[in-house]
Amino acid sequence: MKRKTKIICTLGPATDDPQVLKELMLGGMNTARVNFSHGTYEEHLKRINMVKEMREELGLPIPLLLDTKGPEIRTGCFTEGRVELKKGQNFTLTPKAIEGNAEITQITYPGLAKDVERGTRILIDDGLIEMAVNNISGDDIVCEVLNDGPVSNHKSINVPDVNLTMDYMSQKDIDDIRFGIEQGFDYIAASFVRSAFDVLEIKRVLEQNHGEDIQIIAKIENRQGVDNVDHIIRVCEGIMIARGDMGVEIPFEELPSIQKEIIEKCYRSGRRVITATQMLESMTHNPRPTRAEASDVANAVYDGTSAVMLSGETAVGEYPVRALKSMAQICIKAEEDINYVKRFDERHLDSGMDVTNAISHSACTTAHDLGAAAIITVSKSGFTPRVISGFRPNCPIIAGCMNERVYRQLALSWGVTPIRTEMKKTSDALFEHAVDRALKQTSLIEKGDIVVITGGAPVGVSGTTNILKVQLVGDVLLSGTSASPKSVCGTVCVAKNTAEALKNFDDGDILVIPETSNDIIGILRKASAIITEKPGLSSHAAVVGMTLDIPVICGAAGATEILKNGTVITIDGVRGQVYSGVAKIL
Predict the structure, then answer these.
(1) In the chain, which residues fall in CATH 2.40.33.10?
(2) What keywords sit in the KW lines (predicted)?
(3) Rg of the chain, C-alpha, whole Å
């Protein structure tokens, strides 16, 4: 079973060994994440180039995801590098450029004093130190420390349930995004998104720097993001539930319900949703996940997440490849428990569907009804495969891509296997080409399978998905006129004349002969089907076939030369076609 839920792996020192990166790619990594909160451009560039070289060598569509630092507040540096705070003491936060001590530290956001008030909770180092605002004097914030603990250089500061007015885009983020555009990144994971306007601000930077093809994943990490998630979903290509900072900003007991709610909203709107942070964190140092971690990953899959993410587990962990394989195994097992057809049938449909959504929904319905091996969709922009993915069909989605970036981006979509395809002049030629590529490039379909195909006309124009087609995968050996809608699979007996038929025919064979006569009526009664080169529904073979109620293909030019004795073929009585081997006929 091919895994439908995608896995993002974070790059870092643990993946700098080319062999480790190769094992990750071959082991199921679907997206490579580069965290720009840490490291230099030189370090990032080395890893980026490794991914590009390795994915080309292996022929895998591994997209690059740039995770921005985002708007954050941190402490400055301390004279001794670290101080110990005591419960009940005062500790001052100031924007002044000073070296910190046990009584005061610099903070990176000068406007914090305007956003807080007496009694506001302030957390340092992901909540290890909790303080309450006692007094505000100009830009200085005097706090009471509520618990003992250490604070060292550049630690995070969080202010739960306060809507900070700080600018969303820093110069560093703008520079990082420009760097990402230059290096061909496929996704931006936008940290600490508070509203739809934050996403639009990133889109503006992308457009100004010719990076509008890069897709945005909005990271929901604070109360503002949670409250505004409906609007955020509308303007981005996906959501990441970043539970690390969210767990600092929001009470931990609320996180499970928030996770389920966001996944459900993304599922209903057809957006990708990524569940991230601390999924297999114990595997940073241990070779096996905890039972709680296994349940966490599985429950995200049960909820309907599009992807799950590994952070420190692969970036700095001791067992990066084992962590990936463990996550993949958990995902596959969880998917086996899900009745995707039932979920699809129970899904509420939006009455305002457009043509692409309607065709995509019909493709899923048809695939389920016919037991299709796959849905094959050919898309220029990648929109249709993403829509089909949003419906969560039971069968694989194979996406034919004519654009390299779309080819990589679709690797992050639930259930989608991207393949490279070329432009063709007609939709029929494009569909045949896509089926042929899918047969050669994936192990998802084989000859004899039924596939459902979607595409658009005119060919190559984005947003024109308007065709739904059901096709049998296989080699059409010949075609003619069918005298019966029945279909059959059997062994070929080729006879050039009556004498050969009487000599070589075995009961149950499919008799292939230029024409039939009453001289071989005894054989015809025992044949499973008849193929003749003589045309016409009034021909002897056609009349006999209709009388005996067996499939007959007449007018099959060259049948006695094309078909070979002893080979297995399938007759499609509806279409009047003959396929090589055993094929499933509608």
Answers:
(1) 73-158
(2) ATP-binding, Glycolysis, Kinase, Magnesium, Metal-binding, Nucleotide-binding, Potassium, Pyruvate, Transferase
(3) 31
